[in-house]
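User: Here's a chain of 223 residues. Predict its fold as tokens.
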Amino acid sequence: MRFLALQTDVELLKKQFIPEGEHEILTVTRHPIKFVTEFFGKTLIVLLLTTVLGLILEFLTSSLTQNIVYGLALIVVLSYLYQIVKSYIAWRYNFLIVTSEKLIIIHHESFLHQYVNTIHLNNIRSTRFESQFFGIFRCGILSIDLLELEGGSTEVLVLSYIPTPDTIASAIEHAIALKQQRKEGTDTPQEQEEKAEDIKESLEKEVEHPPTSDEAARGTKPE
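Assistant: Prediction complete.
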């Protein structure tokens, strides 16, 4: 489904950006904690504002000034609803897609704005990640170092609220390895497809059911 600039069907987006012969490695959205924190933060602000407006009403006797306060309250509520919808879109319909050729970042800020950044694997120098919220929710920050630009300047792409960022970094490294094997001619197209499917299945399990600390220490993964 498409509404203005918002495309909610990720499969259509994949068809648009992943041509035939290119293999999908992993697709994720931002971590749900992104929406949760924004929801509670904005709700708290609205509750404070409406409480203040309610207190002001207690001291007003003029119907005109009361209507003005009611109008301000309505504006605050409508703005709150818009911001909540916007936060939901920024979480639910922001996609990070890793393929055997590139990294695709699809960002929907609202109904009115879509931003797509395509980074070919050849332009990625390294990846690193760090945890957010003390690692409790398996949410983190993924940093992607791009190759030096003309003039020696560098660029670092930083993505926050990424679920299991270690798995996403692993997906990128797997994709780079697959591309190198394809370039060296060590794999047939069928072997590449089979490897991509195996990697995708394994990484999706890690995203859906992250290993516990004990399992990670033993090097085992949940079934």
